[in-house]
Amino acid sequence: MRRHRFRSAFVVTVLLLPVLAQPTLAQDSGQAEAVRPTPRFSDGRVNLERLPGEVGVWNRQDYRLILAETTEQTADRDLNRERDNGPPGLKRKFSEVPFQPWAESLFIYRHSHEIEPYTRCKPAGGARNMATPYGTEVVQARDEQVIFFFQTGGPHTFRPIYLDGRPHPEDLDASYYGHSVGHWEGDTLVVDTVGFNERGWIGARGVPTTKQLHLVERITRPDFNTLRYEMTIDDPGAYTEPWTTGMLMSWTPGREQFEYICQDGNLASELMIGAGNSAIDRGSRIVP
Question: Model pTM?
């Protein structure tokens, strides 16, 4: 019975990040205006970054999971949601994830205790690397055949993705971001990453991973304002088979990256010490 209540309460939490409805219209002085098409370089390759002379970042307004309240009414409402209420193929329910028993138990514990390493200024891979507070910026160094993903919040770091055909190193040292190589499949950037340590989380609610994690990300820009992010988690140390989840990100014009010193600017002091303090006991949530 206890396990059933956990499963019901967390049925919607496995989606690492909530799915935004894909925008199709932009409002300008009350007039509907078609969204701008996908920007491209002169050779036709998709441009994932901001255009010259323009300012903006990629953002997930609700970058944390939607946490269902632990009431039967809320749990039932979440259970009755349509699976495809969002971009097809991105949404995953808790019951659909092929957890090994230890990984499922750890996920529930992490989800309940608010002890995310990210709030302690630790780097994060996967979806958590993409969806950070204050926006993510993409820089495509095409002559060098590398793409950089810069995050503003958290540790304020960057991740390189090499597109020059190099393999993963055989003597790879485990790290927070791992080692990423990529290639294009049509308009989709495919990123292959190995070499993760076990200190960071790939999602805000702590979906467990091990050093065996092999992550494949697929990133597409279907129109100017939308970035579709999908990741396949292949980790035989924590799951019985590979599984896929994802999210949509929105272009936020007019915003730029700024200096963010995590230790000084962290607004999540309550989350840094986990459950049991008075603020969390009162149900407050301070977003970093």
Answer: 0.74
